[in-house]
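Design request, tokens follow.
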């Protein structure tokens, strides 16, 4: 019995913070400044990915261009988790040089908790598509847009609260973080493209040499 009572507070507090994110985000993110639970952050990111996968499976075929048989689970993981992780890194780097007060663990937690609206509302919206017609596609798009706008607002709020920024400075840091994110992904894309070209060049040279030697 004592084991359950010791575990209960560790489970209850993350749930209370997640609920507070929906209704009192400033208070929730202020609470996160003193709550460093790497486990909670990882669980929320895994839930985000799980919700994405399930939503692909249950969304009505006439409401989406991505059908379950065409989905690539690795690609979906990269599309959803890597941007969140890279945003956390870029945001931390920018705030660290802009008089920020948060550690990377705080930023990582805040980004993870900002995904709570997506985790809670994406599946009900996906299930709703089973009742909608193609002509009502705008309902699905609107609801999804609201969820993502909500997530975006939470990401901005957590920057302000976690670092005790003014509104003006929050907007500036957010824009700088977005710019850093774009540069980060552009660098990754360029590196991947160049690496791919080098590999193809080496492969072509190898095939050419092999052909000449065989003749």
């Amino acid at each position: 019995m004592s084991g359950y009572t010791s575990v209960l507070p560790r489970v209850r507090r993350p749930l209370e913070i997640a609920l507070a994110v929906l209704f009192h985000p400033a208070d929730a993110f202020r609470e996160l400044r003193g709550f460093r639970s790497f486990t909670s952050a990882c669980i929320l990111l895994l839930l985000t990915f799980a919700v994405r996968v399930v939503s692909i499976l249950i969304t009505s075929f006439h409401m989406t261009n991505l059908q379950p048989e065409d989905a690539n689970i690795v690609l979906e993981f990269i599309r959803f988790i890597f941007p969140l992780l890279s945003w956390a890194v870029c945001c931390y780097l920018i705030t660290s040089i802009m008089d920020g007060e948060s550690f990377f663990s705080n930023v990582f937690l805040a980004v993870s908790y900002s995904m709570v609206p997506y985790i809670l509302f994406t599946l009900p919206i996906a299930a709703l598509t089973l009742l909608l017609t193609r002509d009502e596609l705008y309902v699905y798009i609107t609801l999804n847009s609201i969820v993502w706008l909500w997530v975006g607002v939470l990401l901005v709020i957590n920057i302000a609260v976690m670092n005790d920024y003014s509104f003006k400075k929050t907007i500036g840091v957010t824009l700088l973080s977005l710019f850093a994110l774009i540069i980060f992904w552009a660098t990754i894309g360029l590196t991947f493209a160049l690496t791919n070209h080098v590999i193809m060049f080496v492969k072509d040279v190898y095939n050419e040499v092999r052909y000449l030697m065989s003749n």
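Comment from the thread starter after seeing the answer: thanks! Helices lie at 2-23, 25-32, 38-58, 73-96, 104-113, 116-128, 137-163, 167-214.
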